[in-house]
Amino acid sequence: MAGRNPLGQGRAQVSKEDRQTLSVTQAVKCAKVAVNEIPLMAVVGEVSGFRGPNARSGHCYFQVKDDDSAMDVIVWRGTYQSSGIQLRDGIQVVLAGTFDVYTGSGRLSFIAKSIEPVGEGLLRQQVEALARKLNAEGLMDDAAKRRIPRFCQRVAVVTSLSGAVIDDVKRTLRRRNPLVELMCVGCAVQGQGAPETIIRALKVAEAARPEAILLVRGGGSFEDLMTFNDEALARAIAASGVPIVTGIGHEPDTTIADMVADRRCSTPTAAAESIAPAIDEIVQAIEGRRQRMGSALAKMLYEDASSLTNNANRMGHAMRTRVAHEQDLLNALSHRRCLEDPMTIVEDRKIQLAQTEERLHSAIPRSLARNAEGLKRASERLAAIGEGLIRPHVQDVTRMGGRLDSVGPTLVRPFERDTERLGGRLDTAATSIVRPHEAELARLAASLEALSPVKVLARGYAIATDAAGHVVTTAEGLSVGDDISVQLGRGTVDARVTATHQEKNEQ
After folding, report:
1. DSSP letter at 251?
2. Alpha-carbon distance 307 to 304, whole Å?
3. I need a labelling partner for 41 at 20 to 30 A (CA). Which of 5, 180, 383, 431 fits?
4. Cα gap 120→122, rounded to integer Å
5. Percent of all residues in the chain with a pLDDT value above 90, rounded to a whole number
6. CATH class name, domain 125-140+150-277
7. Strands 107-117, 154-159: parallel, antiparallel or unpaired by DSSP?
8. Among the CATH numbers 2.60.120.330, 3.40.1190.10, 2.40.50.140, 3.30.390.10, which is that of 24-118?
């Protein structure tokens, strides 16, 4: 049928009588049949808008594009898992598959049956696989990384000596801290055999025993930086006995060497700055510490001075309190009667002896009276007992007549013996009570008589007292013209001092 095009291709005019009208479903199915006739093909392109794997289904959805076109791609879960690669935006891939039309929306998609990376994408996959392997072995763990000194005095630089990187590092260190000793070890940083030269340079640098090694190079393409993604080089960096700081490429570039190094910096200049703090920063840090030490020392001295002042105040207060206490004690002792007048001791003893004598004299009559009263009560009890014993027998005695004279003495005689015995015991008890007190009284009287100054005066001695009534014991206490009173054995004599004489043996 001339001019008829069921797929709508071309611009041939079709009359209403010849035009076939289809539903949407019929049209989509017609397109699906036509697309399914397209054979299996391989398409190369760049991944864009990657979404997946889907959390529920596990499928992946994205586009592949070139400079002029783009197409939707679907990768089923099984295909993606069996490919062994990780898709992301920007990598080049070769997709083998066929086109298909989804009948629900009429959308055309490319169903990928297999996925293979190409070019840089393949290299990135290899690098990622190596990174996973080394990470599983623990070479990238933070705990395995060596500590880098905050200020390194001796540093080795491993890089190409023909590039501008070594000049940048030298210039940076001279500007920030000229005290850093720098040693340069040359090596190849790209091309075939470059990893082996870097490994040898690292060993040479390590033999010089620096405090840190800088492994640096300038920027470049991903293929240029593949030297630093070498597995042998990564293991050599991890096994180094000296901390290694890397500064490879630019900020977005990250290599395997960066991952296993002890510190990763974005650029060679940043790597040099990280191991050599600026000299002015060091001076500021030292000055800050000096100020803090001075403040701490001043605070310690102030606290110690305050403590000493407080201790001195407490000691002064304690000493004043102790002196006042001792002074009060001394004053109390000085006002004792025995120190002012020694005769008060004798007088007090006389008073005590007199009181004791009075108590003895009053105690003996009271004791005798108590014993007499007890004897009287005992006699009365005996009489009552005798009467109680005799009364029941009075009628019998009266009735019996002549037997009363013989029965009466028989009943009374035992009580008479008891009365005599109790009287003897009373005399013995009175004597035993009085006798110890008599001996003690005699002893105290003898002591009193021996201590009595009257007894001494009776032997011809005298007691001299001054006008204040104080006993005069030495001639030094008197002056010519002082009035004194002299107590003799009998009577008192008033006298006036005309002269004083000291003993010859006094010094």
Report:
1. T
2. 5
3. 5
4. 5
5. 21
6. alpha beta
7. unpaired
8. 2.40.50.140
230-261 b/e with 16+ CB inside 10 Å = b?
beebbbbbbebebbbbbbbbeeebbbbbbbbb
State the sign of the Cα–Cα–Cα–Cα dihedral 252, 258, 264, 265.
negative
Q: What is the C-alpha separation between 109 and 76, in angstroms, rounded?
A: 12
State the CB neighbour count (10 A cutoff) for residue 88: 12
**If you search the block for the tokens 């990768």, which residue do you land on?**
75
Numbers of helices and strands, H then E, in the chain:
14, 13
Give me 171's structure tokens.
């210039």
Cα(126)–Cα(507) distance, integer angstroms: 121
For tokens 């990250």, what's the residue? 254
Q: 70-75 and 181-186 as β-strands: parallel, antiparallel, unpaired?
A: unpaired
Domain coordinates of the chain in residue numbers?
24-118, 125-140+150-277, 343-451, 457-496
Residue-wise pLDDT tens digits, 346-355: 888 888 888 8
d(CA 4, CA 253): 59
Intervals of the chain under pLDDT 50: 1-12, 404, 506-507
Q: How far apart are CA 366 and CA 433, in angstroms?
A: 12
Write the pLDDT tens digit of every residue in 236-294: 998 888 999 998 877 676 888 889 999 988 888 888 888 887 777 777 888 888 889 99
